[in-house]
Write a structure and sequence with these properties.
The structure is a single chain. The chain is α+β, with helices and mostly antiparallel strands. Helices cover 28% and strands 33% of the residues. It has 4 helices and 7 strands. Helix 3 crosses helix 4.
Amino acid sequence: LLSAESLAVVVNNQVIAWLGKSNSNFRKQLKTNFDAFVLEIELDAFLNATKQTYKYQEFSKFPTVERDFAVVLKKSISTQELLQTIEKNGGNLLKSAKLFDVYTDKNFNPDEHSLAFKLHYGATDRTLTEEEVHPAFFGVIEVLKTEFGAKLREA
């Protein structure tokens, strides 16, 4: 393999596979002028690395409810900590929380920025109502205000 055009697949600090562009000698052996790529798998290492238990979860027949919000807070606060707090306080209807935008503005304090999050709420047995989503959604925002001093950013 050409070292500049190859990669190693590493799982748990163990190389389980190599993938890359072959050198010209290998292409000559194949009697081709086309680039050839090679994948080599350490099968035992691969099988050991992929021994995981997967839990099946049925897809909901009902739509999810999506809510976005943006908060202004100190840059020193970790996004991971914010996401963990959102997931912890989002209630049992919260299915996912993702950061989708980071914004800075001259009107913010120099040590602040705005982070925008997208929350998905859902249930497998019904379509959610606004009365179910609203308290959970605004509860998350209140926790971020209380725990991190976040300010809801207005559009």
